[in-house]
Each structure stands twice: as C-alpha cells, then as structure tokens.
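Example complex used in Figure S2.
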Amino acid sequence: MALERNTLLILAALAALFPLVVNDLYLLHIGIMVLFYCVLASSLNLTLGYVGEFSLGHTAFLGLGAYTAAILSTSFGLPLWLTVPLAGAVAALFGLLIGAITLRLQGPYFVIITLAFAEVLRIVANNWVGVTNGPMGIAGIPQPDLLAAGSTLLAKRVYFYIALAIAALALYLSYRFVYSSAGRAAVTVRENRYVAQSVGIRPFAHALRSFVLGAFLAGLAGGFYAHYISFVGVDVFRFSFMATMIIMVLIGGKGTLLGPLVGALVVTLAEEYLREFQELRLSIFGLVVMLVVLFLPKGLMGFLTLRRERRVATTVPPLPRLSKGGAA
Amino acid sequence: MDLFLQFLANGLVTGSFYALSALGLTLIFGLMRVVNFAHGEFYMLGGVLGWFVTARLGLDFFSGLLVVAAVMAAFGWMVDRFLIERVRGQGEEPGILLTIGLSIFLANSALLLAGTAPLKIDGPLSNAPVFLGPVVLTKMRIFAVAVCAALILAAHLLIKKTKLGRAMRATFQDPMAAQLAGIKTAHVYASTFALGAVLAASAGMLLGSIYSAQVAVGGVVSLKAFVVVILGGMGSFAGAIVGGLVLGVAEAMWGGYVSTGMVDIIGFVIVILTLIFKPYGLFSARAERA
Amino acid sequence: MRALRCAQVIAISVLGTAPMLALAAETVKIGVIQPLTGSVAYNGKADVNGAKLAMERRNAKGGVLGRPVELVIEDGQCSPANSVNAAEKLIQKDKVAVLSGAFCSSATAAVMPVAEKYKLPFLTGVSSKADLTEKGNAYFFRSAETDALLANAFAKILADNLKLKKVAYIGVNDDWGRGGVEEFSKDLGARGVENVLTEYFDHGTTDFYTLLAKLRTSGADGVFVAAETQDGAVLVKQFKEFGIDMKVFGVGSWATSDFVNLVGEASEGIYAAVPYVASLPGEANTDFVKTYQAQYGQAPDKYAAAGYNATNILMDAIERAGSTDAASIRDALKATDYQAPNGRYRFTANGQAYGFNAALVQIEGKQPKVVEMTEVQPPSTLTAQGK
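Predicted assembly (1005 residues):
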C-alpha cells in the first residue's frame, strides 16, 4: 500500500514537471495520450482487476462521455470544466443502468452481454442522426476560450495539465476505493463469490459500485477526448479501443493500482515505435497479447511483486542459537 | 404475402448459415468453457484457404473443401495443444484474452498475406435465379443449405455414434470422472477444438463461394455466432440450429418491415433479452455449479 | 526507498526512449495519412500506390527544388483519433512540408484543425463531404469531387440518357453513402425523377436479399447505389441472382478490373458515375495507365488516380513556391492549374477543385466504356443556379 502510494506521488510530481521541461509538441501529445489511456485503463481495472469480471463493453462509457461532452458543448455552448464532469455523470448513470442488468451474470455470459450493450450503443449512435449526427459525427468541438488566444505550445501544456488532473483524480478515487472496505469486499467477491456471500458480502452491490465508478472515470476520459481531438464519431465505440484498454491492463498487471499506469505507458510508447513496422504493427500486438497471457499472466507489476516476494522469502533470518546456560 | 414469404425464405437461408457458423463455437464453448474469440478468424481462414486452393491450386470445390478441412483440423489441434492447454485450469479470463490476441494476430497476418481485396471462390453451381412461386433463390444457395444440413448431420453422428463422440460427451458431463474412466481428456479437448475449427472453416469456404471471401469479416462473424450460441444455449446442437434460424428470420423480418440500416441491432437485443430472462439459452439444461 | 526506485525506473525508461533528434533533412517531405489497415485498406493502398508512382516519376526528373521528394506514409485507419495522432507525428517528428489525406471525410475533418493550428497546407484527394471546404480553413484544399458536385454533373445525363422516371436509392450507412444518396436524390428529383425507395445497409453486409425483395416491389425502373468495391460487388451480383432487371448506376470505385472480376457476368450493362476510369481518352491518361500497370500489375482506379493527382499537385505547388515555407506553398496551391490524366484542376477561393472531368461509363464485355464525359463545375455556379 505504501509502495503504491509513494510511487504514485513521485510520478505525479515528475509528470507535473514534464511540460515545463519539454518543448516538443509531439512529445507533449504522446504524454497527453498516455494520461488519457491511464484513466481508461484504471477505470477498466476496477471491474476487471478488483471484481474479477471481464467487461467487454467498457467503450460504451467512453463513447457516452465523449458524445455527451460533444453535444453539450456544440449545441448548448457549455465550457470544458462543465462538460467533462457532466460526461462522467451521464456515463455513471448508464453504468448504473447497464450494471444493474448485466452484473447478475458471471463469466462468459457477462462478457457477451456487456459486448452486446456496447454494440447496441454503437449502432444507435450510427443511426440516430438527429442527435449524434450518425456516421457524420460531431465536428468542431470548441476549445476553451483562453487557449484560443495563446500559442499551440501553451494550449498543449494546458491540455496536459487538464489530463494530469483527471488522471490524478482517477487514481485517487481508485486508491480510496481499493483500500476501503468496499474495495476489500470487491476483492473477496473476486476470489470466491460463494464464500463472500457466506460472510455477508452481497456480491451484486459491490460489483455494481465498482462498475459505476469505472463508468464515471471512463466518462471523464471520454469528455476530455472530445475536447482534445475536437471530433467525435462512431469510432469511439469501436472494438479497437476496447482491445487497447484490455492490453494495457493486462500488460501492466490487473488488480494493482500502478498496473494500468505502467500498461498505458508501455503500450502507448510501443504503438508509436511500432509505427516503423506499420503493417506488421497489429500482428505484433496480437502476438504480444498471447505471449503476455501465457508467460506473464499477472502483468509487469505482478512480475515485479512476485520477484520482490521471492527475494524476501529467500532471506531467511538465522535461527537463534541456544547457549549452554539456556538463554536464547 | 409474397413479400413475407420472400423474407421468410431469406431468413431461413441465412439462418442455416448462421447455424453452421455457430456450431463449432457452441461445441468449444460448451465443452471447454473457452470463449473462443478467434472463431470468426477460423471462418475467415476457411474462406481465404478456400480461395487459395480453388483459384491458385486449381482444385475443384469439393476436393478444395476436403483440403481446407484437413488443414484447419490440424491448425485447430495445434492451437489447443500449444496455446489453450497452458491456460486451461486458470478460469475463463486467460482463455478470453488469449483468443482475443490470437484473433488480432490471425486477422492482421491474413491481411498481410492475402491482401485487402475481396476474394472470389468458384462454387460448383451457378448463381442463376430459381423461382419457387413468388420466392427467389439461387441454385447455389439451395446447395449451400443442403451442405449445411449435411455437415450438421455429420457432426451430430460423430458425437452420438463414434467412440470419440462418446469421449467428448463424457468429458462434457464431468472431466474428472472421464479421466478416472481412462479417457485422455487432453486429446478430447484438442479434437473438439479441431472439430470446431473445421466447422467454422467449412462455413467460411461455403459462404465465401456465395458471397466473397474477405479478410476483415472475422469480427462480425464472431459476434453473430455468439448471439446464436447464447440464444440456443451453450453446448446444445439443437440450440445452435434453432438459434441460427431464429436469428436469420428475425433479421430478415426486421430488415424487411422496419429498416435495413439497423439490422445488426436485432442480434444484440436478442442476446440481452435472452441473458436477462433465460440466461442458459432456450435449450440448455445445465444448472450452475458452485 | 523502494517507491523512489520504482518511480526512477519508470521515469528513466520513458526519457531514455525519447525520440532521437531527426537527422538534417535533405529531402522534401510530404506527409501522407491513408487507411492501410481496416475495412477500406484496399482503397487506401491504391491511393498510396498512385502517390508513390507520382513521387518516383518526379524524382526521376530531378525532384522538387533540386531535392528528392520523400513520402512519409502513416496509417490513419480512417479513424479520427488515429489520423490526428498520425498528423501530430508527421508534423512534429518528421517535419513534413505538406499533408495529404486522410481518405474518410470524418478523419479529414479531425485533421483539418490540426493542420490549421500548425499552419500547414493540407490537401485531400478523396474526402467528398461537401462542407469540408465550407469551414473557412485557409490551409485546406480538396482535389476531389464532392457528392454535391458529382450529383450536379450527372443528374442531367442520367435523367435524359437513361430516361428514368422512378429511382430507388441504396447507400452504405456511413457519411459518404448517405451524402451521395441525398445529393443525387435531390438533383434527380429536381428533374422530375421520383424517389421510390431509400435504404441504407451496413458496411460488410453480405446478404442483401431482404433489401432486394423490397426493391423489387418498389416499382423503380432504375437503382442508384453508393457503395465501394467490396459491398458493391456483392450487391450487384445479387441483383442478377434475384432476377432484378433495372438499370443500375453506381458511385464509388466501380468500373475497376477488381470489381468486374468479382461480379463476373452480372456486371454487363452497369453504369457508373466516376471521376476517373482507366479508359478515359487522352494521351496523359494512356501514359499514366501504362506506367501504373507496368509497376503494379493492374489498371489504376479512382483512388490510385486520386493519390497520383494529389501528390502531383502538391509537388507542383512546392516547386512554384520556390521553398518549403508553408505560406508560400499555400499561395502556390491557390494558383494551381494542373493538367491531370482526367482533366484540368483549378481551385476556388475555398480550396475546392473544379474543371476536371467526370465520366459516366457503362460496362460492356467486362470493360468500362465511356458513355459521356462532363466537366465538374465550381460550387459558385451551383449557388448561382439557386441550389
């Protein structure tokens, strides 16, 4: 617990210094995307890592957040600091509705029903031209006013800090949730559902709580995305976002707080570097996923924790010697 | 009335295709509790290999089908022995992630090798229209439905009448007891996976000759197959058939009377409703075990 | 302290992998964003092929400004987010002089503000959504037809030559398909042709029988289809399977050899309204087709021509600008007068190209025969006509 908290604080401090030190717009852009994915991966991790249920519909909340922010800012003219929290709220509301239905199921059924919900939302978004502008998408989402006047470097820096704030909020909320009794109850449900019930923990309620929190965070990320990319189309519901999130949580290590962060970093950087092998990029991705599942099932953070535990275990303290007089 | 009959005919034809595509998945799902996300890619590989053997190697349709079936059986066997075997005891999640990774790898590698253009497979019959009263079909479609039925029957006989089939059913009921009875469950699992792959690939080649074989088709096929399997119940043959037909007809009716633009939504609504009201499908008799 | 060490490791690995300084550029770089993977990868690759051909021919003649031209190609996947990522990388890391892309109108719309922000000229050879050039983006140009212009160019020909009274409209359910259907329906409607059916299908649909059943009972004597090669080929094949006997005309990458091969005999008599086809007359085109065929083994289609033209226009503008300064290139682009295999390209004040040819072809004996050719008018004449 202390390790995670301290690492997070140090990384936060480093991240806060990053834009002041770096002038390259492209690097700042990468940094923003890393923070964005960090929020998404953390939100997925809450259900996947801590409750142990695999949701393939998480893009639904990303998309809902993005469209909410897009519609609120283009049709109603609300500013960024209002649209993003509202996006999170709308996503959380849908999380409540969808979770109430889907969390009654487990295992592969849960997987498929969450996927079905995400697909339904995608098809609706693609066809409800009146609200979402259908396949044409919502373009020209306004930037915050104070950025319009400044330089692009300033704008990038401001966006970085906004993303950092959202990421910090996400990790803070996750941290508080995980180390609360609600979080521990969720872990109990993950480890053994029936035993949890036998000690009075209601799996459904706890799973729902973590699901809604995950939905809220994904919605925040979606709202940010809408303003940063300034265009929201049906592709936010695409499975490729889901696959990326899964890969990040998996590689980083599910069920840990640092895992999604590490995963987001590693995968985003890898994607940019794999651009060199453009066409092979996705094949390599698939291969990496398979290798991680086979050989590094707990992800990088899990691997590090395992090594640490192993090292502690091998340094056995020497047995106390018995002296002639009988004293230890 | 004419229109209704046409829609019904369309639905039954596409429904039998769905049923064949989903059969392999329901076997793998039901027996091994593995959610095989690469199912669509097996279908796609069947189509691409089918094009390769007919267009490049010059075989006729039936010999080509046999070759494709043999290749995909071996491929399915190896996937199970070298990949799925390793994560078998660890719950459902690793299997899901593994097959997602496999599907991404297969889809993109096929893209590199076969290219992006749709591929044409020459079927054994023509595509000329056949008029059954007010309803229009083609010879090739009728043939395809017949082949579907034949393949389904063959798979059914395999499971009910052969030794391997008995071993599969025993492992399905209780893996521990099956092992105690001397059944090599590892082989049974690999064979089941191979069988599932063969069914998917045959469907891919068959349907590739009616429409066209495309590399990007895997995702859609997987989703539709999942819908059928959920509707019919995991591991149930009859369920896959009925589920496929129901989905086909429902889509045809919705597309015909409401709008063709939102046809895909029907499948997902069916899944959601099924999972809420009858989670184990229409035909499954399994109860949940602690 | 373990936490510090943990953080150190993570931070160092990030900084240590920061991109190296770009080596001094000798070449003139053109950034290209096209879908190389995904459902329209087929067409994206054709576009890139055309672009590469243009670049190689130019380099054989000495390049631009005395330096060789280099195409830096990124995969936008037709997705706005990925295309923006690609644009950021091309502009910041590769320091390209101009941008070309991004194929799908939605992806292009997302990249436009990025180009404007960095003040870099951005040319699209494919995106056809009409309002892209209406957004007042001073750095954006389009060397392609819009759905509106194409509809306007062909409505008269279609209504008169094909003598259609009732038309059914079928389109793929995305922004391009919807745009095409709406524009053609509007223009043909203005000439007294009745719209009896409008239906959309999802990209990747393989079975159109339900749609065809509706079509048969609609009483149309012609059907308009907005679909690309993959969907269009399956649809046309099924027309004939279904026994439908209407006149078919389509927009999209029809009339290419791939399309005809896939469709087989059912392609006889199909009309296509295309801004480019390999059988266009003229020496420039024959030369282009021959070189393309020699290099890639098949005749160029509409997207290959689009890539070829867009790249040539950009290289030409850089040459006339005399430097890689963005503002000069933009001004040079405005003054473009480029002779392409399919006509003469000039730009309006909004950056919309006009003056090039579009053709109505009919497929006879598996070859596209040009039935009529017309010039694409600039949008201002449309407004003058009260559209």
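The radius of gyration of chain A is 22 Å. The mean pLDDT of chain A is 83.
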